[in-house]
Write a structure and sequence with these properties.
Helix content: 25-40%
Strand order of the largest sheet: 2-1-3-4-5-6
Number of strands: 6
Order of helices and strands: EHEHEHEHEEH
Shape: globular
Number of helices: 5
Distance between the termini: 17 Å
Radius of gyration: 13 Å
Strand content: 15-25%
Oligomer: single chain
Amino acid sequence: MIDKPKIGIIGGTGLMGRLYESFFKRSGFKVLISAPNTELTMEDCAKSVDVLVISVPIDKTTEVIKEYAPMVRKDGFVFDLTSFKIEPMQALAQYSKADYCGTHPIFGPGIKTFKNQTIVINPGKGEEWQAWLEDLL
């Protein structure tokens, strides 16, 4: 595992994506943002990061996972930020060669800090990456 992984957020121009971008940058990580309206394509984002965060509307999550999770390298990590977990977790299990988990932030984008917030983590594959995420959050 890389000490300071490069993080990409697909859907990073939305409210939750921007919240996580700010959090990761304050934590010292390099963050790439991709969305339909950004210069960086979602494909290029997925291929060039160590950690890929899927932060898109719920009805697009599974579709985005199917398309971009396979592009994350095998020693990388993918997680989503949705409240519904069954279909996204099934898609991650089927399409990601990287380690993965699901997350469900129990808060909205209006928070000022992640301190004392609750984030449910749905275990997937890769205990080391999941432990990294738990420690970070």
